[in-house]
Automatic annotation (TrEMBL):
Protein name per the record: Bifunctional adenosylcobalamin biosynthesis protein
Enzyme Commission number(s) from the entry: 2.7.1.156, 2.7.7.62
Role of this protein: Catalyzes ATP-dependent phosphorylation of adenosylcobinamide and addition of GMP to adenosylcobinamide phosphate.
Pfam families: CobU
Annotated pathway: Cofactor biosynthesis; adenosylcobalamin biosynthesis; adenosylcobalamin from cob(II)yrinate a,c-diamide: step 5/7; Cofactor biosynthesis; adenosylcobalamin biosynthesis; adenosylcobalamin from cob(II)yrinate a,c-diamide: step 6/7
InterPro entries on file: CobU/CobP (IPR003203), P-loop_NTPase (IPR027417)
Keyword Magnesium: no
């Protein structure tokens, strides 16, 4: 089961996604693939706040880029949260040697691997179209890359949720999970 959760900044996406994973885990362990690379105090505080909100049943794997390798460490049938695709996409573009096409291929391979392992994978990403429009070409290129990933993921996912004010609105459902 693949679930794509999107919404504006600070909309409650992570909390909604965590509840999806907890439900899918059915009392078992929950896996958290963290894509954040901590570069400053603000990000460190956000990461600590997220960690503190989760209990001991959560197993965290740090994967700023190698999401495929992180998923390969997780058992078949497990419930997994990947948070967040927005940060991961920025690292593909600005902190790796990968092209956009190679980054998209890495995401596609990870999602297909999760599906073949019968993992319940919930992916979180920011809908940056809700923010102010950028005024520079590079930001437009990044948004184009991210939105291309979103479009592919929305088509591939079994469920697509948009989070507004902490409420998940399901736009697509092949099977009830959240």
């Amino acid at each position: 089961m693949i679930v794509f959760v999107s919404g504006g900044a600070r909309s409650g996406k992570s909390e909604v996604a965590e509840q999806c994973v907890i439900k899918a885990a059915k009392g078992g362990s929950c896996y958290y693939i963290a894509t954040a690379d901590v570069f400053d105090e603000e990000m460190a505080a956000r990461v600590e706040r997220h960690k503190a909100s989760r209990n001991a049943r959560w197993i965290t794997l740090e994967a700023p880029l190698a999401i495929d390798a992180a998923l390969a460490q997780i058992p078949e049938g497990a419930a997994v949260l990947l948070d967040c695709l927005t940060l991961w996409a920025s690292q593909v573009r600005y902190a790796s040697e990968l092209t956009d096409a190679q980054g998209k291929c890495l995401l596609e391979n990870a999602v297909h691997a999760a599906r073949s392992q019968h993992q319940h994978l919930v992916l979180v990403s920011n809908d940056l179209n809700e923010d102010l429009l950028p005024n520079d070409e590079e930001t437009w290129r990044y948004l184009g890359f991210l939105q291309g990933l979103h479009r592919w993921l929305a088509a591939e996912a079994d469920s697509v949720l948009e989070v507004v004010g902490g409420l998940g609105i399901e736009w697509k459902r092949k099977e009830t999970l959240c």
